[in-house]
Write a structure and sequence with these properties.
homodimer, alpha+beta, Mth169, Chain: A, 3-stranded antiparallel beta sheet, 2 helices
C-alpha cells in the first residue's frame, strides 16, 4: 500500500474566481501581505503496490483534472 | 515573497461523498488497486515576508477551512 497525493490547480492563464474572492476578503478581515491566492483540489489516494506511475498519471489526467483548464501533479508520500 | 501551500481535507471521521464517487468510478473505468480516495482543497498563496506562521494559521483556520469538519496543513515551499 502507498499513499499518493494528486494536486490539481487551474492553469496559470486561467482565471480563478474562487481564489480571487479569498484574496479580496483577506484585507477586509485584517490580514495584509497576501498578494495572490489560487484554489485547486487536493486528492489523497490509497493504492496497491501494483499501481504504477503511468497508471497514476492516467487517473490524474483523465479523472481528477480537466486538462483543458487544469494542471496536476502526482507524488507518493509516506503513509 | 514566499509561496505557501495550504491543504484542507475532510477530517477522517467525516464522510467524503466526492472522494467516494471517484473511488467507485475507478474500477468501472478499468483502474484497479485504488482502495480509497479522499478529496479536499489545495490553496497556493503568495505572501510577503511580513506574514508569519501564526498569521498563516489564522488564515487557514478562519478562512480556508471549516475547522468543524476539516483539518488543514500549512507549509512554505520554494517559489
Amino acid at each position: 500500500m502507498a499513499r499518493v497525493v494528486v494536486d490539481v490547480m487551474p492553469k496559470p492563464e486561467i482565471l480563478d474566481p474562487q481564489g480571487q474572492v479569498v484574496a479580496r476578503a483577506l484585507p477586509r478581515l485584517g490580514f495584509s501581505g497576501v498578494t495572490e491566492v489560487r484554489q485547486g483540489k487536493h486528492f489523497e489516494l490509497e493504492v496497491d503496490d501494483s499501481v504504477d506511475d503511468e497508471t497514476l498519471a492516467k487517473i490524474a489526467e483523465g479523472l481528477l483534472a480537466n486538462p483543458v483548464i487544469e494542471q496536476w501533479t502526482v507524488r507518493r508520500v509516506e503513509a
